[in-house]
């Protein structure tokens, strides 16, 4: 499944109609959730039936395409299912009880209620709202995909305009020549990541670089009169700046993950619990700005696309254990050099990268001693690649 995104170019009146469509989808979602809270014990299938009931009860809700109403009800159903799954798994902390939405920014269509032009450069909405025809602006081409392969369309409102995301039911596979290399990746705040070979990637810190501009724009919002057009303009400028920072962060995470996967046949990284780590109020902003979760998600995605082995390993003791002898060397966060009694002196993150690679290889079924891990670069590329592939295939069998 791949997603292609295009910007929608239309008139101001068309954008106002899209806003009405989004508010209607939010109403359907909240109304479905309300019906569930007031009728405990009903089946989730009954929530779909409420979409038709709402269309008859509210004339303006009936303008929205039936599949769009069903997709809005599905959002409430997914929230309910996630809540029950967290309760069943006894997830610590809050279980995520479904909440009513107030600021929804998107709605979804399934395979009806819209149509593409012959050249697939224009999108037309055909439901009761009659939003009309929009020009699709983007670098991707929809000509490669049949209309029945497009399973859903999501309309998203952002600070800089409206976008259409096409969810296409195809599997992306890329062929690439094996490199015969394996690395372990240790993410951090000083450097974005340090691998088991000692190579580092600088942390861009996009949010920190934009903090002065964000504070200035936030101040302009606060001094404007509430409800005025000038305040709306200031809010839009602030939103655009935040959007730029998030896009920079995402682009950097994608490029680094792609580079790591294409350059190596085996990638091991730490399975960090970022949600728990951001509870530290002194480091929360820096951790969020580093986008470790996004980086991990794209590592997994590109691993599947390029048929590479990507493994998440437990992060316990990766920084404390010695990569040469295995002894624990206690260190505080301020201690950046690993010094062990066996004579090993390494950068803290470099040592962690070696331990992560060792854990990843062991988890994949490659049983190597610790000394061999330190000599991994001395192996022949073909031998290492065949060993990793053989061990991975054995573990999957």
Supply the helix-strand structural class: alpha+beta
Order of helices and strands: EHHHHEEEEEEEEEHHHEHHHEEEHHH
CA distance, first residue to last residue? 26 Å
Mean pLDDT, all residues: 85
How many strands in all? Answer: 14
Backbone CA Rg:
25 Å
Contiguous uncertain segments of 5+ residues: 369-385, 389-397
Number of helices: 13
**Strand order within the widest sheet?**
2-6-7-1-5-4-3
Sheet with the most strands, sense and barrel status: 7 strands, antiparallel
Percent helix, as a range, is 40-55%
| Strand residues, percent | 15-25%
Shape: globular
Any descriptors?
397 residues; alpha+beta; seven-stranded antiparallel beta sheet; five-stranded mixed beta sheet; globular
What is shown here, in short?
The chain contains 13 helices and 14 strands.
Walk me through the structure.
The chain has 13 helices and 14 strands. The chain is globular, with a radius of gyration of 25 Å. Helix 7 crosses helix 10 (292-305). The longest helix is centred in the middle third of the chain and has 35 residues, at 229-263. The strands form 3 sheets. It has a 7-stranded antiparallel beta sheet. It has helices at 12-38, 45-57, 59-62, 66-88, 206-209, 211-223, 229-263, 274-277, 284-290, 292-305, 348-364, 370-374, 381-396, and strands spanning 2-9, 106-109, 114-116, 122-125, 132-137, 150-158, 161-168, 182-187, 191-195, 200-202, 266-270, 309-313, 337-339, 345-347. 27% of the residues are buried. The protein is of the alpha+beta class and 397 residues long. The two termini are 26 Å apart.
What is the secondary structure topology, with strand pairs?
Blueprint: E1 2-9, H1 12-38, H2 45-57, H3 59-62, H4 66-88, E2 106-109, E3 114-116, E4 122-125, E5 132-137, E6 150-158, E7 161-168, E8 182-187, E9 191-195, E10 200-202, H5 206-209, H6 211-223, H7 229-263, E11 266-270, H8 274-277, H9 284-290, H10 292-305, E12 309-313, E13 337-339, E14 345-347, H11 348-364, H12 370-374, H13 381-396
Parallel strand pairs: 8-11, 11-12
Antiparallel strand pairs: 1-5, 1-7, 2-6, 3-4, 4-5, 6-7, 8-9, 9-10, 13-14
